[in-house]
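User: Predict the full complex structure for these chains.
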Amino acid sequence: MIALEGVAATKGRFALRDVTFALRDGCFGVVIGPAGSGKTTLLEVVAGLLAPSAGRVTIAGADARGRPPEARDVGLVYQHAFLFPHLSVRDNVAYGAGDPAALEEATARMGVTALLDREVRGLSGGERQLVALARALARRPRLLLLDEPFSALDPRRRALIRREVRAMHREWGLTTLQVTHDFAEAGMLGDQAILLDAGRVLQSGPPAEVFRRPASPYVAEFLGAENVLGGTARDLGEAAPDWIDGAPSEYARGHRAFAFETEGLTLYAVGDFAPGAGHAVIRAEEITIARDQTHDSARNRFAGRVTELATLGALTRVTVEVRGVPLVAALTTRSAQELGLAPGIAVVASFKAMAVHLC
Amino acid sequence: MSRALPRLLSVLAALAGSLLLLFLAAPLVELVGTSGGEGLRRLGSDAELRGSLALTALCATAATLAGVLCGTPLAYLLARRDFPGRAVLSAVLDLPLLIPHPVAGIALLLLLGRESAIGGTALAVGLRIVGSPIGIIAAMLFVSAPLFVSGAREAFAKVDPRYEGVARTLGDSPWRAFHRVTLPLAGRGLLASAVVMWARAVSEFGAIVILTYNPKVVSVLSYDRFTSHGLGEALPVAAALALLALVPLTLLRALRTDVRGER
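Assistant: Here is the predicted structure of the two-chain assembly.
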């Protein structure tokens, strides 16, 4: 397990403050944060390349203080690869490799066998990232630290390599910590998401939980929640069973029902929120759109007009204005076409109380 | 009007640059052009000139080796570490470049002369500094080592420390990462800095003439012949010295390729 307790560190203009989280052995942790949030600095602290000015880093149960990077059994891949330009690809991959079988496997699985006799200077950005991954994996470390390692790969190769890295992580029992600013990647790879901003951990937990239950409106917006509304929540008492029907129970902690007043709308929500001022978060994919009133189990149902349609391939984002409040829903493009949606059309937007997260 | 002014400024800038270039190159071209051949011919007949050239090259090489050995760790430290007093240390290293070289010679004489603690002790064990090749090497080292340290520091600074970081995670100790990664990546810059140091050492006069007039290095021999025999005798020696300085210059040009590290 790796654990950070109250870690502070500074590198140039990047600073970590009071960073605390733990990642169990064999887990895939994903650090998400905007540019400049200290993600790379965090990896360097774990790798032992940067000494924390406060706090404690524990690796495999032992305090890592004073343990140099070469004794931490880590593999580190930077976004810019940092292949040694004076060595060939083969020499780069073999640089720290101990076991020839691991070297061969890492090379083959990262798809760089054909590049082995090339010079580093002739490689593309994507090829460099693959070689850097192979170099780190060839050492077969216990802890793999990845700093946006797929950013230069084309989408097809990215999906392939992401899958391969996840498979190697599982098969080799690696503990992996990857930095990304892409939450979708975090959801696909991670067992644990760690949200970092301005050097602080905002939230940490399973990606699905972080995604559905952001700790703050800032986290919600950072994770791409389209509907974040400010208002006041009123406790309505224990939620009736039909309010929580069909929803995963872990997201309905406390099972309290709330009425959330926002800009003239009353939303109904279920959760464990302390009544008072707060924010309601509704993900676009939780909102369904119909041309007429429907009779489903949704607690929240609002008549409004379509103001905007944005088609992104198979998905269409529909903005519906309800009494001056814009609600964004995500539909399949086919559904949007079947409904005959267009700006100005009257529709009904509905969503369940369970889909409203209060924070 | 609006187009004519920038053109006029460009022509004036080009003219100013050309004039400076001409001013810098003309004396050397004139010297080597008129006396370079004679200087080379004299190498066959003038044993003192031959000996002086060899002494100059050897002493400059020894000073450069000492500068590289002692200056490399210092340059690495200045490029990589942030520590209290770094600015002061940098300023101290620049001092020899800022003071007149005869003043440097006088300061060295005070430190290494036979009346001084170091010079007296050395003499007691049979090691003469002033008036010997050791004095020449000391003077050369003093005036030219800062050039090496400055160039080497820049060469190290160009190598992204993350290369070393990656090497450390791949199992290297700090020294091994330096040896396997940083040194090869900064190598060309270090070599170029050493060549500049050597060239500066070869052409030093002011500090050497105070510390060690005899045996004569080429710059001192040129001065000696000028004062004793006039311009005619000094010219071939001066031309030979200029040619000797051209060797490192040519080498430096050959090395001036992209030394930036690659990501």
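The first helix of chain B runs from residue 4 to 45.
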